[in-house]
């Protein structure tokens, strides 16, 4: 089945499982270091692509093993907890996972780094004539001008970190707001 791809059933929004997802050894941590490295690379890509397709940013470890992501019912295989842990440690080392608590029971999954999101947002700002002007985070998140952009609907914490990354590069300035969630904060983009 190396050349076939299968779509996620039941509301997956066009997500396509990679061929490895239907290959039983994919769900067993490989002993050979070269094979394990390739396996981990495929798992990392799968986790990021899955969360991207679902616009999901949080992974609950207690639910992970039974989730469709780590358990393929079609071939009756599931990645064991130590395999999930290895994948998440690899993603953490790459900056794609950040733990929400010291128990490491929930993590934030970032299929793009805040810097990468910031670059997308900055390109949009420049192309749409928002250079040297101010937008609210709400406008970036939910505004009419951004409905076709990949960052539309992005989690507010990711958006804030993205603007902070732009600020560190001198491309934007985050202007604090008054609301508890920060959605009324502003951002000034520099040309």
Please tell me about this protein's structure.
With 191 residues, the protein is of the alpha+beta class. The protein has helices at 33-54, 61-64, 81-93, 114-127, 137-142, 156-168, and strands at residues 6-7, 16-17, 58-60, 71-72, 77-78, 97-99, 106-109, 134-136, 172-175, 186-189. The strands form four sheets. Strands 3-7-6 form a three-stranded antiparallel sheet. The chain has a three-stranded antiparallel sheet with strand order 8-10-9. α4 (114-127) crosses α6. The longest helix has 22 residues, at 33-54. The N and C termini lie far apart (50 Å). Its main location: cytoplasm. It comes from Geodia barretti. This is Vacuolar protein-sorting-associated protein 25.
């Amino acid at each position: 089945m190396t050349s076939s791809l299968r779509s996620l059933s039941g509301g997956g929004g066009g997500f396509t499982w990679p061929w490895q997802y239907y290959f039983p050894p994919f769900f067993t941590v490989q002993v050979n270091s070269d094979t394990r490295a390739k396996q981990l690379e495929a798992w990392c890509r799968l986790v990021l692509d899955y969360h991207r397709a679902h616009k999901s940013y949080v992974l609950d470890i207690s639910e992970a093993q039974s989730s469709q992501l780590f358990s393929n019912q079609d071939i009756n295989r599931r990645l064991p907890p130590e395999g999930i842990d290895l994948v998440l440690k690899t993603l953490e080392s790459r900056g794609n996972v950040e733990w929400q608590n010291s128990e490491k029971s929930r993590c934030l999954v970032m299929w793009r780094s805040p810097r990468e999101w910031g670059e997308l947002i900055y390109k949009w700002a420049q192309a749409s004539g928002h250079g040297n002007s101010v937008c609210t985070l709400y406008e970036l998140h939910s505004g009419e001008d951004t409905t076709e952009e990949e960052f539309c609907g992005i989690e507010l914490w990711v958006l804030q970190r993205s603007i902070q990354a732009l600020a560190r590069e001198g491309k934007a300035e985050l202007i604090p707001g008054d609301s508890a969630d920060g959605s009324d904060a502003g951002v000034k983009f520099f040309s």
